[in-house]
């Protein structure tokens, strides 16, 4: 609680500010590294099919998702959520407009998570059906968990802006996280939904 009071009143030391920024950068780097490792596993098993997985990528009878279905809807939802959080960052001087835009972004993020849940429940394959199922569920569920974390960050920013204690750096951190998740889901959409 002291760090919130210190940052609100402007008493946060330079060392504490640097440590907070470094921690956030390390969080973003860890997200990128985890997704890169799963993507590398994906490409390795597409191009160098192993005898250990039966030299198959997708088991016969497994109906994977197409490029024009629920994945495209999720890409559009995340795109508009990112646009709203960027607009709220641009309108931080106009508190009411910033609150509405940030609330819309959080709402779209929640819609994304609900659609991911529905997609998991209605899928025709499971995580154990093939390597494709393992990669698909690993990537999308990890993105869903990170999206819930991102929504929580934006929700804290929203509460702080409503209570007149929010700062621009908090909203920048939340928007960078959300925009990174947008880019990661675009990669997931291109390489997992479209190319399979």
Name the features.
single chain; 196 residues; mainly alpha; Four Helix Bundle (Hemerythrin (Met), subunit A); 77% helix
What's this model, at a glance?
With 196 residues, this protein is mainly alpha-helical.
Report on this model:
- This protein is mainly α.
- It has a single domain (2-194), classed as Cytochrome c oxidase, subunit III, four-helix bundle (Four Helix Bundle (Hemerythrin (Met), subunit A), Up-down Bundle).
- Helix content is 77%, strand content 0%.
- The chain has six helices and no strands.
- The chain has helices at 2-9, 14-47, 70-90, 95-122, 131-162, 168-194.
- Helix 3 packs antiparallel against helix 4 and helix 4 runs antiparallel to helix 5 (131-162).
- It is elongated, with a radius of gyration of 19 Å.
- The model has no long low-confidence stretch (mean pLDDT 82).
Topology of helices and strands:
Elements: H1 2-9, H2 14-47, H3 70-90, H4 95-122, H5 131-162, H6 168-194
